């Protein structure tokens, strides 16, 4: 496997795995918890800490991680095309903002949060910088 593809896979899979772990152990009554507890029969411990780091992780880390992973995923898909980083950036930001807007108008479940948009765009920007430095030398 090419080293650059391994780098892409790691930047897609690792953030999603970390987000999964956060959802499994820091949330209750989510779709993913239902799958693990009801269908797989696993009883998962619930972790709670009363501090600012825990609050940040439970409020924004998963959104940051999926936005970062999405950017790498889209880059992987559009890599063969002309200007893949530009397309990746625009689509990632549009998707992130669209999800928040759909939450705001209550078309999908979730809570609209302007900080989600700010932090997701920051994560997308970080991913773009990393991709640019890694692949476009």
Task: Provide an overview of this structure.
This protein is mainly alpha-helical and 137 residues long. The chain has 5 helices and no strands. The chain has helices at residues 3-26, 31-39, 52-78, 84-104, 114-135. Helix 1 packs antiparallel against helix 3, helix 3 (52-78) crosses helix 4 and helix 3 packs across helix 5 (114-135). The chain is globular and about 45 Å long. The model has no long low-confidence stretch (mean pLDDT 92).
Compact overview of the structure:
The protein has 137 residues and is mostly helical.
Largest beta-sheet characterization: none
Distance between the termini: 20 Å
Structural class based on helices, strands and sheet pairing: mainly alpha
Element-by-element helix/strand order: HHHHH
Give the uncertain stretches in residue-range form: none
Helix content: over 70%
The value of Rg in angstroms is 16 Å
Number of strands: 0
Morphology: globular
Mean pLDDT: 92
State which percent range the strand residues make up: under 5%
Keywords:
137 residues, 75% helix
Per-chain topology:
Layout: H1 3-26, H2 31-39, H3 52-78, H4 84-104, H5 114-135
Helix pairs in contact: 1-3, 3-4, 3-5, 4-5
């Amino acid at each position: 496997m090419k080293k650059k593809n391994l780098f892409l896979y790691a930047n897609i899979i690792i953030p999603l795995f970390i987000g999964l772990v956060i959802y499994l152990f820091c949330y209750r009554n989510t779709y993913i918890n239902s799958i693990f507890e009801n269908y797989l029969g696993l009883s998962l411990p619930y972790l709670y800490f009363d501090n600012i780091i825990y609050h940040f992780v439970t409020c924004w880390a998963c959104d940051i991680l999926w936005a970062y992973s999405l950017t790498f995923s889209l880059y992987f898909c559009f890599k063969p095309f002309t200007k893949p980083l530009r397309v990746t950036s625009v689509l990632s930001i549009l998707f992130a903002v669209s999800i928040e807007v759909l939450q705001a108008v209550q078309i999908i479940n979730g809570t609209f949060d302007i900080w989600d948009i700010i932090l997701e765009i920051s994560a997308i920007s970080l991913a773009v910088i990393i991709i640019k430095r890694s692949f476009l030398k």
